Amino acid sequence: MRARWFVGVLLLLLAGCTGTSAPEDGRITLRFQSLAWQEESVEANKALVKEWNATHPGVKVEYVQGSWDSVHDQLLTSFEGGEAPDIIHDASDDLADFAYGGYLADLKDLLPQRLKSDIPQRSWATATFGDGVYGVPFLQEPRVLIANAEWLNESGVRIPTPERPWSWAEFRRITERLSGDGTYGVAWPLKEPVSATLNLSLSAGGQLFHRGADGKATIRFEKADETVPRTIHDQANTDHSASPTTLGSGGSDTLPGFFGGKYAMVPLGFSYRQQIAQQAPKGFQWQVLPAPAGADGLTQGVSPQTLSVAEDSPHKKEAAEFIDFLLRPKNMVRLALGDWMLPTGTQALADPALHVTKDGWATGTALASHLTTAPAQSVRGYPEWKDKVATPAFQEYYSGAIGLDELRKRLEDDGNLVLARYQR
Amino acid sequence: MRTSTTGRVGQYAALLAYLVFLAFPFLWLVSTAFKSPRELGSLHPTWIPRDPTLDNFRQAFDEQPLLRAAGNSLLAASAAAVIAVLIATPLAYVMARRRTWLAKAATGWVVVSQAFPLVLVIIPLFLVLKNLRLINSLVGLVLVYVVWALPFALWMLVGYVRAVPTELEEAAAVDGAGRLRTLVSVTAPLLAPGIVATALFAFITAWNEFFFALVLLKTSDKQTLPVVLTHFIGAEGVADLGPLAAAAFLATLPSLIIFAIIQRRITGGMLAGAVKS
To answer: Which residue in B62, B219, B235 is closest to A62 by CB distance?
Structure first.
């Protein structure tokens, strides 16, 4: 009796497990895997999917929640197994392998002229690999300085603006001036030091990755590449104007110290403002400042969020139409506000909602025209170089364990060996 | 006597330190789950939230389908545990009692199978399940969990079976019990704590499993709790800490409850009643 009861429960469990749902009658169903994760952002995405479904009876879009944490492995397996979502949300620096691997559709002839012309070429460049365009860049964020406004005002230092930013040398002098007994002018959260260093180095003319006439990339750590890493290193090790403890931390980890008055400034991604607005103690005044500028001004490398279409999708045209709908200027603004990021679209960027001074939106939008593709992101082998060579090398350099010569040697010698394997 | 007291104090101190070490992450998780965003950003963290709030729980439930995900996890983990134990128990008995070359080879295979890394099997597995139309299906996921849990479950149960003295079975046979009667009336009750422990192991393994669930389940309505938890984490590891802690706290509850319920069965005298009075 007991055994029969047991088997019955097991059968019920298995019956309950049975998976696939019945196909829709004649309707095309597209799976849209979104990586939106903040409350407002998820809401905006879901609302737009709902609006699409209400107005497009023949093409149903199914919202699937993905996660940034594991998107690469998950997509890779899905592509290999032929089960990828039709519409894929990712970041442009994750697309190279998928694009070269033939997993993503070339969108050049699928997208309408309206969308093509609305997004500037420098943004399209972030998702262009070889002759094809494999993603629509739609949201991006510059790295900015989030500052304790009261502290800065009381110190009497010149407050930088996008029109008159600090130079890297001026930034170093000011952080030294702001530092004192147990307090620091800046806290660099450099748990992942590579993209922060490389993207900011563009302002000083640093390229690091150079393409030869044969199209192959090599690494050369030149004078212009030194500016940013040397500034950070000297702040932490010579001037003691940068907190040494935050060098191994993530951005969120620096916020308690920032709110607690230990650091005057924290260089963070633009979207961190959401956490700051939410977590800052009552009365805490903060402001958004542009990152320091170098010989190339405020130029900064970014890896925008992108929307791609799977090559295996049987409904590429409809998927591209959905992307076009999702990225109409008004919708792009909704997505940007939800994610606290900047839209790539020119019309969306002009929306008054993104030009308010509150929460530093105006400073961010003023930086948008300086954002360009990070030279490293289209280089095959970059992820391996980043993880195995550059991350430990930069971490050791910033902590003072090795000098600039050793850093250069490791980035170039070890790095070029890695790249050579990918470019035979 | 003095040495003994000192030694005992030392033992208790070590035990206490170990318990604190074990409990710290969980207590911190609970504390975080009830803190307001402002308190989470404080430079001076507190154990007991100053202004405890349920907002993180509200937000977690508003943002993600936690109940549905918990249901999926419960279904998959329970089914995997039950099936793994049903398969492993008789196999383990044979492997423990019949020391033939086949049993030894099977034992060797069980050990070797533990060495396969996930990434090695995931794509072939994905393709096999796709051909069986078991992608995006909890049945497919349960199959994977059963296969994944079986080697260790077998390994555990073989040990439990070997711990049951063969003399008891022989005594039952002398008393006239047949093979089936001996298994059901003598061996099975003695194995019960081991079976429960093994099922618990299989359940916890499946309940916490992330990678297979991430890769094999395609639509939001099928996703399990560990997958949904990652939705509170953004690019570059930024996390919505309050709702994440609230959701993670809820995710630990079933394991804790199950542990609390069956702990007695695991620790209850394994060979209680084994000796005829």
So the answer is: B219
